[in-house]
Amino acid sequence: MIRIATIAVIIVCAPAALAQSVTFSEGLWSYQATAQMGPAALSHSGEECFDATEGNYSLTEAVESISQDCVLVNSAEIEAGYSFQVACTGSIEGELSGKIVVGREAGRLNASGWTGSKDAPIDISVDATARRVAESCDG
Fold first, then answer.
1. Which CB contacts under 8 angstroms, 24+ apart, belong to 40-43?
2. Which end of the chain, N or C, is more open, meaning fewer C-beta atoms within 10 Å of its C-beta?
3. Cα-Cα-Cα-Cα dihedral sign, residues 64, 66, 72, 77
4. pLDDT averaged over every residue in the chain
């Protein structure tokens, strides 16, 4: 099953397409994510701090952090972000398609797909938001 915590972190840690990358503004970012997997509703929230050298991430790396069995199969630049498609086989099976939009102060990820098995797929939808809450991480 695709892990909600990892998907939630994608909005903060990895909004880029294949060879492209997006730079998050330096500072403290707060994120929230909700997912619906079949009848189960899941949520995750947290904070991530970026200094001037930590704001660049690739979506490919984020997808691989879900599982070694997951790959980014498609991505395209859209206005202020990217569309993407992820496929997982092996210990985790599923597909996820969505969009990620990131600005200087906020970002959003929306995706839907399935997990489980092709014979018995479970619908999944994910909505995640992030916003910069401070210009630095100093206390």
1. 42/4, 43/4
2. C
3. negative
4. 79
